[in-house]
Specification:
- The chain is mainly α and 203 residues long.
- The protein is 46% helix and 5% strand.
- It has a three-stranded parallel sheet.
- The longest helix is centred in the middle third of the chain and has 19 residues.
- The two termini are 31 Å apart.
Length: 203
């Protein structure tokens, strides 16, 4: 399949997809976030949205902020301009359809991007968001260690990068939230953080 071709599939019966959705619901931690009255910013990949459309809709209906993270998670720098345009067009279409709203932010995989190339894509108007605290939870499974690293490093106004690839990441996120909320810290979406800081998010 050429990189500039957009294609998606859904595998399994409806019951199988529902069971898989229930498993990943725990991985996302949506129920736990709701219990703690925390809204987060989710940067979604198009191929995952295609697999879990119902969960994407729930993320949106729960009030979380939705951003685009590309279609395939390939580095934007490795794609031709045509492939990059297709990559972002596909992901924006997938996410918008499933969530019922257009993503308002963009996080390039690995944080690698070239502004002049993004300016020629469907995401030209989206502010690019990076991060300030990254425990690299995607390559670790020690929830306590991940949480401790973030709690030690975080300062007011920081953007914490965490993933939904494993239970350890969610367990770490909940420990971080519980610990810092007990200290009076409030967790908000990226856009709300910028608003409170008086910072205008621009592409």
């Amino acid at each position: 399949v050429e990189k500039n071709v957009c294609a998606g599939t859904r595998e399994g019966t409806r019951a199988e997809r529902k069971a898989a959705a229930q498993r990943i619901l725990r991985t996302l931690g949506l129920e736990e976030l709701a219990q703690r009255r925390v809204l987060a910013t989710f940067f979604l990949c198009g191929y995952r949205v295609e697999q879990y459309q119902e969960l994407t809709a729930q993320i949106a209906s729960d009030g979380h902020e939705i951003g685009c993270h590309g279609q395939t998670h390939e580095s934007f720098r490795e794609l031709s301009q045509m492939a990059l345009c297709s990559e972002l067009e596909c992901s924006m279409e997938r996410i918008t359809t499933a969530a019922g709203q257009r993503p308002t932010l963009l996080r390039p995989p690995g944080g690698v991007f070239e502004p002049e190339r993004l300016a020629q894509t469907v995401c030209a108007d989206l502010p690019v968001v990076l991060w300030s605290v990254d425990p690299k939870d995607w390559r670790r499974s020690d929830a306590d260690g991940i949480a401790a690293e973030v709690i030690e490093a975080v300062r007011p106004g920081d953007i914490i990068l965490l993933h939904d690839m494993s239970d350890s990441s969610v367990d770490a996120a909940l420990t971080i939230i519980d610990t810092l909320q007990a200290r009076g810290v409030e967790f908000v979406t990226v856009s709300e953080l910028a608003r409170r800081a008086g910072t205008e998010l621009t592409a």
